[in-house]
Amino acid sequence: MPDEQLHFDYKPARLVDRNGDLKKRWYVEFYAWDAKLDKLKRKWVYIPAKYKTAKERKAYAKKLIQYTNSQLEKGAVFNAPKIRKKSNKQTQNIQEALELAFKLKTVNARAESVKSYKSVFKDFIAFLKDNEVAGKKIEDVPLKLYYDYFDELIIDREVSNSTFNNRLTILKTFFNVLISREVIEKNPLASIKRRKHKPSKNQAFSEEQKTAIEEHLLQHEPSLYFFTRFIYYGFLRPTEITRLKAGHVNLKEGHIIVYPDVSKNGKQETVAINKGFQKILEQMKIDEIPADYYIFGANNMQPGKTQLRRVRVTDKHIAVLRKLGLFDGVITLYSWKHTGVVNAYRAGIDIKTLQTQLRHHSLEMTDIYLRSLGMVINNSLSNQDW
């Protein structure tokens, strides 16, 4: 028989939004052919509970529907015979395989992750095309070619070890997806090793720098000043702050809930509000901001419904450092976190409390971080005798 694509009956995926009722669970519904039952079978996929607004749910559903329908159009079925997988494995070239891996990795990824994946994907595909192997099967691409790509990054493009490692990690992830899908049996990049990377030193502000910047911000950039307080007191990441909404702040209970769709690691966490932080939040009149508004919106960092881009905050902060003659590439927006931690530790806050506020998974991680800031750990015995 000729080797041709089989086509099966199906009903395209669609969003069931429960008539717009956000209290009910929305889901995506579709029908695909069940090879074992020899008839159409209904399937529904619930929208994750972390998506609270209609806009968020529709955005998630749109990606899921696009991917699902593309698979249905290609002949995806339930209980497919293994022979179909074998056929796909035999006919798929490296570009098509990596396109599949890219789609699977980005279907529910954060915007920042999608941007990184897309950049590496496009660059590697361009390299494959330049070397006329994009149309070859993965098993026919020689190992030397993969080494050539990473040699080019080091020798010709002179990328940093950090960039090298990041690209290697992303590409290995793509190939691991293909292993799980039984497209390939082993990762062709397995023998390529990461390069040694010396982490940049964490640099806090001196007291003089801190005072000068704060005075300038209070006079010329009050919104940016308030933004830095979330870093200084809450040890929050800038990207997390751009996702925070007024409803996440509970002044009465004295904490901020960092929901999974806000947190970098995708886990729900809590940040304590100390006295200094509470005064700032009261000054911002946080309780008067609508609960569904971003605390720092896209319109000049004022509260609003449109999310602020993190890069705008970074650019504003760099501009201030340049104006004050403090920009050196070492002190950054993150220096507010480093400064807050140093001052908290010097004020007598114990390492366990700092671990909780920093949301570190272990005391060892906090210990290493404090040492990177030049803090001497466990000196309580220095003035003791026995």
Automatic annotation (TrEMBL):
Record bears the keyword DNA-binding: yes
Sequence ranges assigned to domain Tyr recombinase in this UniProt record: 200-386
Name by which UniProt lists this protein: Tyrosine-type recombinase/integrase
GO molecular function (one): DNA binding
InterPro entries: CB, DNA_brk_join_enz, Integrase-like_cat_sf, Integrase_catalytic, Integrase_recombinase_N, SAM-like_dom, Tyrosine_recombinase_XerCD
GO terms, biological process: DNA integration; DNA recombination
Lineage: Bacteria, Pseudomonadati, Bacteroidota, Cytophagia, Cytophagales
Claim: Mitochondrion is one of the keywords in the record: no
Pfam family for this entry, one: Phage_integrase
Sequence ranges assigned to domain Core-binding (CB) in this UniProt record: 85-179
Family assignment from sequence similarity: Belongs to the 'phage' integrase family.
Alphabetic keyword roster: DNA integration, DNA recombination, DNA-binding
